[in-house]
# Entry
Amino acid sequence: MKCGKIKADIMDDGGTNMKIYVHTAEKKENGWYFLCEASLQGLQAKRHMLVDSDACAFAYILEAADAFVYVIMPKEVWGAIKEALRTNEPVFLVGNDATIELEGIHEEVAYLIENIAGNANYGEEMEQAVTAFFE
# Structure
């Protein structure tokens, strides 16, 4: 299984959940800003993350009134995640109409990195990519 590339900023999975793709990360004076081209109106940080092994990406969960929205963070922004972990700087998601602080991202990513190392349940490609990048 190969790690996938970003194909769109917003993808509806056909059910009640959507995926928003981070396409760029920028460092500013007060933290990291992950940019996407999506509406963030009415969404709130859930303080929980998952892994999208098929896309070789981390996924931060946002809550809407009746669904979850997955913020997909592909390998292209892992450098920003690694630096935010190192410096403990806040991470914000910037959309077309709102900015949301991704609360708890440091603890969640640190947990995932530790859990993925040597764990074949995440898929060999994901395990190798995370281990190599975050060592």
Q: What stands out?
A: The chain has a mean pLDDT of 89. The first strand starts at residue 10 and ends at 12.
